[in-house]
Design goal:
260 residues, alpha/beta, 6-stranded parallel β-sheet, 9 helices, 8 strands, 12% strand, binds zinc ion
Length: 260
């Protein structure tokens, strides 16, 4: 190979090397750019995840049975007002006598009123379906007399389990009532002497659907510890992202499965 040919070959090799180098540069630049794009995407995705906490679908329903009572019901209302939380009171008709102002307060402060029979006497109310519905109607009339409002949501004393069946449900629905049991029980009805910490601990157990907590509590005259535990129960559900709601006829019915 003469000198001229050697030079041409050298120039040719240099050109190929240069092209390869340029290609390499372009590819690495592309990779870097790509990484930059990904880098930009990462925080965007993260921020979208943060935005994801806006829609909440976890609801907590605080429910108080057996009232109204002179001391406990107003004390519960005071706490609910302070915490800005709406709740549901399943009232007993005979307890309204002489406590009309307390029932009125429940209503004017935006809580829901439900029916929990007139006598709360198990032997009487569960004698027949007619008796049971008759007691609800009597209580509804009393609530209407005081507040001007006729409740349509009901709770079985002791729960609907083994008491509700296809036939009674038809009658209940014919009268436009909706049934609400519970899936959280702080056990203040069975044992009003439980400590504040025991009541709060009991409120943490949700049976079934964890996104809907229907919490059973009582406002009998002996439920003073329930009053003390209430803020702690509200805090627990609030911190977990639950929204507090009162039960209305728009709330899907909740009753225990029954065998026909
Ligand atoms: Zn009760």
């Amino acid at each position: 190979m003469n000198y001229k040919n050697q030079s041409i070959l050298l120039i040719f090799i240099s050109a190929i090397v240069s092209i390869l180098l340029i290609c390499l540069l372009l590819i690495s630049n592309y990779i870097i750019n790509d990484l930059k794009i990904n880098d930009v995407f990462i925080p965007i995705t993260t921020s979208l995840k943060d935005v994801g906490e806006i829609p909440t679908s976890k609801f907590a329903y605080l429910t108080f049975d057996d009232g109204p009572t002179h001391v406990v019901t107003p004390a519960i209302l005071d706490i609910l007002k302070k915490e800005n939380v709406k709740a549901t009171f399943f009232v007993v008709g005979k307890e309204i006598e002489g406590r009309e102002n307390i029932l009125k307060r429940i209503y004017t402060e935006g809580h829901s009123i439900g029916l929990h029979t007139y006598s709360h006497n198990f032997k009487k109310i569960y004698r027949s379906c007619d008796e049971f519905i008759g007691e609800m109607k009597k209580t509804s009339d009393k609530v209407k007399e005081v507040t001007g409002f006729s409740p349509k949501i009901i709770r079985f004393p002791g729960g609907s389990s083994k008491r509700l069946n296809d036939f009674t449900l038809i009658d209940i629905h014919k009268n436009n009532y909706k049934v609400y049991d519970w899936n959280v029980n702080i056990c203040d009805g069975i044992n009003p002497n439980l400590s504040v910490s025991e009541l709060i601990k009991n409120s943490h157990t949700i049976k079934g659907n964890k996104n809907e907590a229907i919490i059973l509590m009582h406002c009998n005259s002996n439920n003073k510890t329930t009053v003390k535990a209430l803020s702690g129960i509200i805090k627990y559900y609030h911190d977990l992202g639950y929204t507090f709601k009162a039960i209305t006829t728009s709330t899907p019915e909740y009753y225990y499965r029954f065998k026909n």
